[in-house]
From TrEMBL:
It comes from Micrurus paraensis. Residues 1-29 form the signal peptide. GO terms for biological process: positive regulation of Ras protein signal transduction. This is Serine/threonine kinase 19. Keywords: Signal.
Amino acid sequence: WMEEKSQRASKLMMTLFLFLSQVQEFISGKEFARTVKKFLDSVLTACPDISFDKKRMLRDFGFRDTEITQLVNAGVLTVRDAGSWWLAVPGAGRFIKCFIKGRKAVLGMIQKSKYKEVLLSDLQSRQAPNAVKLGLPYHIHDIIGAQLVDCVPTTSGTLLRLTDD
């Protein structure tokens, strides 16, 4: 039990470290960098929550309305309701947009092939469409991992077949 708790704490610390690294890289040199640093230093270290309300931000952490607006503009907070916010990862929206478009493009490549199946080696050697910003190998691993295709071993290599969902 203690070992499991220690592993969870270790994963949480690693996630926090990655989050802090991502945010610090994003804000470097921007006008709201001081406000974001204040948020990271005072709020994230003292509060494990992922949701924050206005009363707590103003009273407990000493932020002003303008600073909260800067945090939203910086992408560190995203609006949950009027007067409350979720913790956010700056730039995550752009990544998700590229991820979804790329996944659809690769699935479309398989959809258009005969019998809705293609050899993995053939797919890897194809020219990636413009929508595939994260790279064809990334999206191939994604669709295999998400079980959107079945991997069928053949004498010619692995065959990717769209699932019947």
